[in-house]
Design goal:
- The protein is α+β, with helices and mostly antiparallel strands and about 280 residues long.
- The chain folds into three domains: about 50 residues, no CATH class; about 120 residues, CBS-domain (Roll); about 80 residues, Uridine Diphospho-n-acetylenolpyruvylglucosamine Reductase, domain 3, CATH 3.30.465.10.
- The termini are far apart.
């Protein structure tokens, strides 16, 4: 068996391509032509060709081309209490939120991770100080190119950056996921792993569960080994809404079999977050 591939490095890989396809490239445009020719000859499959071409083009793109603009950012003030931001945090389903100074909306204090806040849902939060949970954030010019952004993410071991304009004001927000998607295409958020119910359903220290109302009934049944069904609804929130026969209020609950469903977040249109308890494991 040949071990010809054992020494594959970017340089040896490129040498083989140029041997097959012509002279060494002198410019990036030449290199792109070689890559395209390799695709046509079947040396590279279509996906590999796309990723290589995207990687080469990343240095031409600027942060402002992929950032979430300031007007669309969901941020939290550094003097906020859980009751102020938890409903919005849960409804948005984002995993990271920039924290801004209460007295200066252009001063970024840090980043708040949603996973650090989940345990506070439904709990009393006396002596709560948001600053205890804030993680460092870094800023990058909105004109910076994506290759620099990726290097900064790696160096700072961070997943989110604040894009700033020429005056130092907040221009937008950009994540590592946003940058990588320019190379590999759409990818899942870090909480969207192979078992997506890990994002919809969060076990709590007291034995209860925080469940997103959009959790599909099938996923809920698989997780809790239940057999809930409904002809008209596909989500657990739909089932709960049909049982109430009206829009429930916060902290209202309903019991189905040996499960208690308490409303944690809802508005005039829909239920967003539910607390689920197994009544067989709770004391009266």
């Amino acid at each position: 068996m040949s071990d010809e591939r054992g020494g594959d490095t970017p340089k040896s890989w490129l040498n083989r391509l140029t041997t097959l396809l012509g002279n060494d490239p002198e410019t990036r445009a030449d290199l792109l032509e070689i890559i395209k020719a390799a695709g046509k000859k079947g040396i590279l499959d279509a996906e590999s060709q796309r990723i290589i071409e995207s990687t080469l083009q990343v240095s031409d793109m600027q942060v402002r081309e992929i950032m979430v603009p300031r007007a669309q950012i969901i941020s939290i003030k550094d003097n906020s209490q859980p009751k102020d931001f938890l409903p919005t945090m849960l409804e948005s389903a984002h995993s990271r939120f920039p924290v801004l100074a209460n007295d200066n909306s252009d001063e970024v204090v840090g980043i708040l991770l949603a996973k650090d806040m989940l345990r506070l849902i439904g709990q009393k939060t006396e002596r709560f100080d948001l600053k205890d949970y804030i993680r460092p954030a870094f800023c990058i010019p909105e004109t910076a190119h994506l290759d620099r952004l990726l290097r900064e993410f790696k160096a700072k071991q961070s997943h989110m950056a604040i894009a700033v304009d020429e005056y130092g004001g907040i221009a937008g927000l950009v994540t590592l996921e946003d940058a990588l998607e320019q190379i590999v295409g759409d990818i899942h958020d870090e909480h969207d792993d192979a078992n997506e119910d890990s994002h919809w359903i969060s076990p709590q220290a007291d034995g209860s569960y925080i469940v997103q109302a959009i959790t599909p009934i099938t996923e809920f049944n698989d997780y809790f080994e239940t057999q809930l069904t409904h002809d008209d609804f596909e989500t657990i929130g739909g089932i709960i809404l049909s049982e109430f026969e009206r829009m429930p209020h916060i902290n209202e609950y309903i019991d189905l079999a040996h499960w208690r469903f308490t409303i944690l977040a809802a508005d005039l249109r829909m239920i967003s977050v539910i607390k689920v308890q197994d009544l067989r494991k709770t004391t009266a």
